[in-house]
Amino acid sequence: MAMKIRLLTYLLLPILLSCCSEDDNTYPSLHTELAEVYTGSDKNVKNIVFDDGRSYDADRVISSSVADTLLRCVCSYSIDDSYNPESFKTYSLSTIPSSFPTAYDSFKSHSSVPVKVLGLWETKRYINAYISYKTTDKGKHTFSFSEDSIVSSIDGVKTAFVSLHHENPNNDPESYTQHIYISFPKYYYEGKTDKVELTINQ
């Protein structure tokens, strides 16, 4: 069944970020949130911006393989109860699928492998989902967004119809369930359309 979500809505980057770890005897409570991560010309993370607007400078050397780039990531971190920026400490940072929509005709196949939507929420700049799919990790699953069409109604409302496109490798039997986050950058359509209808094949 296809799930359709009417929503006002970057670049799929399979990049691993590495954090320098420290050995501590005690571990504080960890928070896990989605964030925008900005890298500098040296390919190191400069700052981390969470969806509620909080922004923190990188507390240690966190390297990536790309320079001067915005990445969408899952960030695990600790911070004191007053959210003092000086107490911010990153424990892990990993990129997630987040791409600008691609024209429908650019896809070799228009069929999308079903996923299960476990959670769905909207923030100021993104539509976020927590999904699962079947795999044995014998190949790479790819996730992107297809701009299927843009239609103007008789009353002048312009709607972008977008769908999640999921491809799996041929040699990957459905042995167990994998869970991932994905983010759709709704800011891509700001000033272009009035709303977006996102379809996820379940």
Entry keywords:
202 residues; 5-stranded mixed beta sheet; 5-stranded antiparallel beta sheet; Immunoglobulin-like; mainly beta; 2 domains; OB fold (Dihydrolipoamide Acetyltransferase, E2P)
Walk me through the structure.
It is a single chain. This protein has 202 residues and is mainly beta. The chain folds into two domains: 2-12 and 98-201, Immunoglobulin-like; 18-95, NigD-like N-terminal OB domain (OB fold (Dihydrolipoamide Acetyltransferase, E2P), Beta Barrel). The chain has strands at residues 2-7, 18-19, 31-39, 45-50, 55-57, 62-63, 70-78, 89-95, 102-103, 116-122, 126-135, 142-152, 158-167, 176-185, 195-201. The radius of gyration is 18 Å and the shape is globular.
At a glance:
This protein is mainly beta. The protein contains no helices and 15 strands.
Q: Do you know the CATH architecture of the largest domain?
A: Sandwich
- Span between N and C termini? 5 Å
Mean pLDDT: 83
The outline comes out as globular
Low-confidence stretches: 1-16
What is the topology?
Elements (H helix, E strand, L loop, with lengths): L1 E6 L10 E2 L11 E9 L5 E6 L4 E3 L4 E2 L6 E9 L10 E7 L6 E2 L12 E7 L3 E10 L6 E11 L5 E10 L8 E10 L9 E7 L1
Parallel strand pairs: 9-12, 13-15
Antiparallel strand pairs: 1-15, 2-6, 3-4, 3-7, 4-5, 7-8, 10-11, 11-14, 12-13
